[in-house]
Amino acid sequence: MADTTKDREYLMGVDLGGTKILAGVFDDKLECLGRAKKSTKAQRGADVVVERVAATVLEAIDECDLQPKQIRGLGLGAPGACDPETGTVIFAPNLAWKNYPLKKELEKRLPFPVFVENDCNIQTLGVYEKELKGKPRHLVGIFLGTGIGAGIILDGKLYRGFNRTAGEIGHMVLEVGGPKCGCGNKGCFEALASRTAIFKRLEAALRDGHKTVLTEMLGANLEDLRSGDLRKAIKRGDKLVERIVEEAAEYTGIAVANIINLLNPEVIVLGGGVMDALEDEMLAIIIETARDYAMNGTAEGIEILASRLGDEAGITGGAVLARRETRK
After folding, report:
1. Which of 24, 112, 230, 321 could form a disulfide with 75, with the two C-beta atoms 3.0–4.6 Å apart?
2. Which of 229, 259, 258, 246 lies closest to 286 in space, CA to CA?
């Protein structure tokens, strides 16, 4: 049977997280045709995770009534430092991986090329190509979730840095001697404004005797707390939650100002689970604070906006990476 160009035009993106694997099939115009999702089961070890990634990918292809041979390539975002040349995950704390040859292992199980990149770099690529149509020359994507990461695009290309770890904005220190961060330092942006940081501040406030409607909603230990619950609490007039979320927004604004002073990108896009849930409560404060803290004149004309891609940013960016790499 003759192979047509159309058959080769399908691309795949995979968002590999510490808790879930999301795979999507895309056409060459970056429209998502179908997706599949599984839990990661990171505690079972790297080989099991790779098997689960491959199974999720094949399930998404099947969902679209396609054959694996019709996929041109797959781009995958991993939660940690990656070497895109070799497709090795250098270090992924959420998966407990060190120097894992992810590309090689996935290509053993799948009949098309696999390209591996840091998850925030991938999400930034997705926002850049899909939402902003590749227009800005310089863009920084900041993602507020369980942790905080960023991707940097300079002159239309992903900027990875000397050790391929550029964009670790979550570990920029914003408060000397501040709260302890998972990385071992104190006062990192991630320890001040991530979902984890917001939850820790709430827990500390409860221990100090402060009241919140969240305990009525979720019980005393707030075990199942999600970012969306914070929005609900603020809508119900919860002053404690409002104050903690506002403080996180102010720290984010200071981080954005630092990025403006350092890189002066055309656009700064904010995404991730915290922004998806709390855009109405945070974005205006972030913009105002960033403009207050940026050096006079540096923020002029710079757009600061929230991404609309949500959960789709990672898989869309994976498809962008696959498209870029297979066109070379």
Report:
1. 321
2. 246
d(CA 93, CA 95): 5
Say what the pTM is: 0.91
114-118/81-83 β-pairing: unpaired
Superfamily of 134-306 according to CATH: ATPase, nucleotide binding domain (3.30.420.40)
Question: At CB < 8 A and 24+ separation, what contacts does 133-137 make?
Answer: 136/265, 136/266, 136/267, 137/266
* Distance of alpha carbon 102 from alpha carbon 87, whole angstroms: 6
Report how far residue 75's alpha carbon sits from residue 269's, in angstroms, rounded to the nearest whole number. Answer: 21
Cα–Cα distance list, 105 to 16, 58, 78 (Å): 14, 15, 14
pLDDT for 8: 53
CA distance linking residue 158 with residue 153, whole number of Å: 4
- The reply to whether 6-127+312-326 and 134-306 are identical in fold is yes
Taken in order 181, 187, 190, 193, the sign of the CA dihedral is positive
pLDDT tens-digit map of 253-293 = 999 999 999 999 999 999 999 999 999 999 999 999 999 99
pLDDT tens digits for range 62-87: 999 999 999 999 999 999 889 999 99
Per-residue pLDDT tens over the stretch 230-255: 999 999 999 999 999 999 999 999 99
